[in-house]
Amino acid sequence: MYTALLLIAHGSRHPEANADLQQLADEVRRRGTYDLVEIAYLELVEPTIVQAAERCAGCARVVLLPYFLSAGVHVRDDLRRQRHELAARFPATTFVLA
Description:
Elements: E1 3-9, H1 15-31, E2 36-41, H2 49-55, E3 61-66, H3 73-89, E4 94-97
């Protein structure tokens, strides 16, 4: 069973603010814990969550890991909704919101 990790950040118009997520993904990839590591942004920049989920095609399980400072409305509401929408769109894949 292939498992992907999908790291999700808010997203910023400032590239340097988005660089943290890419650095984290590179480190997780280096450790080799997951078969695939992708990044996504909730707003403002790409890849979107759906675009990144499409890159996880073929994985039986995708762990959605929020990379937010606090569990505000985006984590509590928006990401839960996104998880449900992804599960409906990709029924052969299990999406787990960490």
